[in-house]
Structure formats: C-alpha cells, structure tokens
Amino acid sequence: MPQKELIFDAPTSKRLAQEGKQAAAEASSASLDQARRIARTIAVRRDDRCVTADDIGEELERLGAPQLGPEAGSVFAQKSVWEFTGRRVKSSRVSNRHRELKVWRYLDG
Prior knowledge:
By secondary structure, this protein is an alpha+beta fold. The protein has 3 helices and 3 strands.
C-alpha cells in the first residue's frame, strides 16, 4: 500500500525550506553575493541601517541587473550580520501583490 503524503508537518516543512534556500544560494552565488553587497551598501547609508528585499530589487533594477529568484530568501540568512527588526512593510513590487516583507537591520561594519 502506498504511503500517504504528509500534508501538515512543521519539522518537515522547515527542513525542506532550509534545504531549498541552501540549494538556491549555492546555485547562484554570484547573484546572491551581489545582492548582499547591495543590501550592506544601502544599510550603511541609512541612519537606522534597515533594508528590505524591495530595496535590493529596486537597486538591481536601477543597475539593469537580473532580479533574484529563489535565492532571495538567503540574502538576510547570515544572523551575525542581519537582525529582523520585528517590523514588516508592504511590498511595492507588482508581482508581490502587496505582501508583507520583513525589515532587516545591518549589524556588522
């Protein structure tokens, strides 16, 4: 008899999310490195040192660089460098349909 597929399982869901972010980050490290540099540059220019994914996307657009794909979830993954502020803002990216984005604070440098 075939095994029933899990629909709800928090530990499996979390593990798969982490594996997916890691695979995406490894597959496109040049794009991810560029996005992290952009995030740091934006952060150090601001008094509050805060950045969102939209800030990075807007700068990539201005530079004529490709937008991030699945690796975008790894930009702020370095917890010694970035801290979630507890704040969220609405995205202005049309494809995000006004969903909430986390606001991250740069801790290093």
